[in-house]
Structure formats: structure tokens, C-alpha cells
Amino acid sequence: MQRRIRFTKRIIDSLAPCPPDQPGREIEYTSLEAPPGLKLVVTKRGMKSWLLRYTMPTGRGPGIKRAIKLGDYPTIDPAEACRITLEHRGNISRGIDPSAIRQELAAELTLDEFFRDEYWQQAKHLRSAKNIETRWRCHISPVFGHLKFRDLRPADILRFHNQKRDKTCPATANRVLALLKRVSNVAIMLERCDKNPCRGIRLHPEMNIRRRTLAGEELRRFIDEVRAEKSRVVADFLMFCLATAGRREECLQAKWSEISFENRLWLLPPERAKSGKARVIPLNDVALQVLQTRREATSGEFVFPGRRGGHLVNPMKVWESIKKRAGISDLHIHDLRRSAATLLLNDGGSMVQARDLLGHASSTLTATRYAFLADAQLVSAADRLGAVLANVGGASVPAGLPLSTRPDLR
Fold first, then answer.
1. 71 partner at 20 to 30 Å CA-CA among 200, 234, 249, 382?
2. 22 vs 284, which has greater pLDDT?
3. Mean pLDDT estimate for the chain
């Protein structure tokens, strides 16, 4: 295998992951055009990073061989990697060890500074970036953000973990602890700290299962108030959530390009699905009626547009107003999703139908991107839910879209 390459973006991007049969966990590449000691490391998972190998003179003998990680590719491009390497080699020639400099900087680095300058640069590209930033800002930063890694104590973290459980819930406490543990692990890999202070702290048992649903007279009052609501964008959004059993953010960000009126389907792309896998959601008559109303009212990219362009972001003010007028308490928008599944089950639907309609993970190998297109049971589930909602609220079937227009998906 050729280990000498040119450090250009085109060549680096084309490098394959380290072969599974290769000894060790990674493979190193060098370049005659790069400063001495600069290596490009490629792991078996295809991750690429820059490494500087050097020998630190000791005055006696051949010196001490050392290595430090410069950063990940493509966050650091080849030109920047060469510049950093030349800077380090200049320090080495003056008898200054780059590892010692890094340790001194790490000793003065606070958790907030590390999160902002190093961890967040990688995490901001993740699908969960918004949750990561919120958990750090609201939970971890106020308590530990001003501390340095060497000042973190397992006893303090354990007390913090227990307090979060008591003030919020076990699930929230566990997610916050997991983030702090992950940040500490990354700090270890980047040589910012020696050990993880979260090690040995156990997660709390999670028993905060929410069972709140809408049914009967309460459901009828809710639908009546949704129909009477002046803010039609929010009202239609709430009805669409209930009719499709979709998640809040999935529905808020729905685009017209994802809607197929002809096939009565909502094609949810993988980048917006919680599972990271594409979902195909059959549209019942109630959902289609909402979409037809929205189509006549807007011509933008999003089904539920916001006031400043883009999609609807925060429907909570209207949501609270509807609940108050309907005399409903302790109800979250996500409870509409659970209500849809409950209505389906109470009307004779199966657990399998409810699972598939909600988009929960399937254990079968046939749950591929478009497996739901051939699932007549799921189509039946969506139609059954639409019929139940129509009966509760007295909804009419949209003109020109009877059930017989649905294509045969068997």
C-alpha cells in the first residue's frame, strides 16, 4: 500500500478507511512536500486526523520520541496542518516541548472554554447539536463551566447528578451526565485531562413514562377549539400532528416537496427523522384536508410557515390558549402523538399497526427506506385513525379525495 501521498484535499478525500486486516487500528500517510514528522492518520472507520511525530533532544543519547495530535481533518486543512507543524518544530529547535506547552494550556483551560473552542467545533455538525448546546448551557455550565478539569471531583458530580434527578427527572439527569462524560472523554483524547471524573457514576433508573392522552369529551373539546382558533397555521399544525402521529419537529419542518397528494404519502427524509432512517407516512383524509387548506393559504417551501420566513418555530402561545379555552391541563404537544396511537388501539387497531404508524424501530430486516410503501396494514392504520378523528370532530372528507383514490400498495 502506498504510504507517501500528496496532502491535497482531493487525494485525502479519496483515501479509503484503514483495511480491516491491517495490523493496528489505523494507518499513517506522509508527504515529501510536508514538514518532517507530519502524518495523516486514517482509522478503520474512515476518520482522518493530523499527527506530529518528533524527537525531543535531552542532551544525552538520541532523545525522546513523542507524538501529539494536531486536530481532525477536514476541520484542519493541509495548509493549516503544515503551518502548525512548522510552529511546533520551531519550538522544538529551541528546546521547547510542544507536549509541555499543551499540558500547560490544558491546566488553565476551563470546561466552558474547552466546550466552546474544541468540543463544540465537532459537535455542532451532529443531528443532536441543539440538545447538546442546551444541556451544556442550562445544566452543566452554571455549575461546572468555570472549573478546570483538574478541579472536577467525582463526589461533586455525583451530588449534581442526584440533584438533577430530584429537580427534573431521571432521564434528564442521565442525558446531562452522559454529555459531561463524553466531553471529558474527548478532553482525554486531546490530552486536556488525565482521567474521566464521571467514571463509576451510575445512571438513574428511568421510570418517567408519560401516559397522558386525549379521548372522549376532552378530545371533542380540543378539536372544537382547534377549529375555532384564529391562528390557522398553528391550528392546522396541531391537527396534522394528531392525524399523522408525527413528532413535533417533524411536522413543524414539513416541506411540500415531501408531500405526495397523488399517492397520499408523506416522505420523511432520514436527516429529519429521529431514527435517522427515512419514513413513509400514509396520509388519511383528515391529514389531507389539513394539507389542502395549507396549500391554498401558502406558496412557500414549508407546509407550516413562520412569520419571518422559514417554518413555524414556536406554537406554544397558541397551544396554551387552546388548552385553556378547552379546559385541558397537563397536556404536551407530544401527547397528541400518543393520543393518536391510543385512538387507533381503542378502535381495534393492532400493536404492530400502532408501532409502525409511530415510526418506532422495527426488528425485521424488511424495514428499509421504502418498506412501508408495501405495508397495507399501515395504510389501514392511517385510514382507521382518520376515520376516528373525523367521527369525533365531524370532519368532512376533502372533495375529490375519497378513500378509493388511494393507490393499491399491496
1. 200
2. 284
3. 83
User: pLDDT tens for residues 15-50?
Assistant: 999 888 888 888 999 998 899 999 999 998 888 999
Average pLDDT over residues 352-371: 52
Structural domain boundaries in the chain: 9-97, 111-189, 216-405
The answer to pTM > 0.70 is no
Residue 402 above 50 pLDDT? Answer: no
SS3 of the chain: CCCECCCCHHHHHHCCCCCCCCCCCEEEEECCCCCCCEEEEEECCCCEEEEEEEEECCCCCCCEEEEEEEEEECCCCHHHHHHHHHHHHHHHHCCCCHHHHHHHHHHCCEHHHHHHHHHHHHHCCCCCHHHHHHHHHHHHHHHHCCCEHHHCCHHHHHHHHHHHHHHCCHHHHHHHHHHHHHHHHHHHHCCCCCCCCCCCCCCCCCCCCCCCCCCHHHHHHHHHHHHHCCCHHHHHHHHHHHHHCCCHHHHHCCEHHHEECCCCEEEECHHHCCCCCCEEEECCHHHHHHHHHHHHHCCCCECCECCCCCECCCCHHHHHHHHHHHCCCCCCCHHHHHHHHHHHHHCCCCHHHHHHHHCCCCCCCCCCCCHHHHCHHHHHHHHHHHHHHHHHHCCCCCCCCCHHHCCCCC
Domain 216-405 is of which CATH architecture?
Orthogonal Bundle (1.10)
